Amino acid sequence: VWSFIENQILVAIKAVPLGQSAGQRLLNVLIPAGDEAVRTSLLVDVNDWSNFSPLQAIASAKHETQYSRLFRS
Questions:
Q1: Which has the least CB within 10 A, 9, 25, 35, 68?
Q2: Is-contact 33 4, C-beta < 8 A?
Q3: Which domain does 23 fall in, by range?
Q4: Are 26 and 6 in contact (CB under 8 A)?
Q5: Is the pTM of this model over 0.90?
Q6: Where does residue 66 fall: left (phi above 0), alpha (psi -120 to 50 degrees), or beta otherwise?
Q7: CB-based contacts of 63: which residues, under 8 Å, 6+ apart?
Q8: Position 26 in a domain
């Protein structure tokens, strides 16, 4: 969860006019939400787990072939 939050903030710093200090403040604000997400996830029964996310896969595939990608890896 920490890595996800941190990566999303790094993207925001690069993609919108958000400075390093504002990014750090935002990270500080979102840490409790990340902790809560972890606590909530621990309550989910194993039979309810799922990794089915077809729209995310479609969006990722479209992003790979965009003319101008924001970030290249």
A1: 68
A2: no
A3: 1-44
A4: no
A5: no
A6: beta
A7: 69
A8: yes
Measured between alpha carbons, how far is residue 48 from residues 25, 42, 57, 73 in Å? 34, 12, 21, 33
φ, ψ dihedrals at 8, nearest 5°: -65, -40
The verdict on residue 7 lying in a domain is yes
Q: Identify the sign of the CA torsion 57, 30, 3, 41.
A: negative
Q: Which two tokens stand for residue 69?
A: 């990608």
Q: Give the per-residue pLDDT at 73.
A: 58
Secondary structure (DSSP) of 1-68: -HHHHHHHHHHHHHHTT--HHHHHHHHHHHHHHHHHHHHHHHTS-GGG-----HHHHHHHHHHHT-SS
Instruction: Give the span between the Cα atoms of 36 and 31, in whole angstroms.
Output: 9
Residue 63 reports pLDDT greater than 80: no
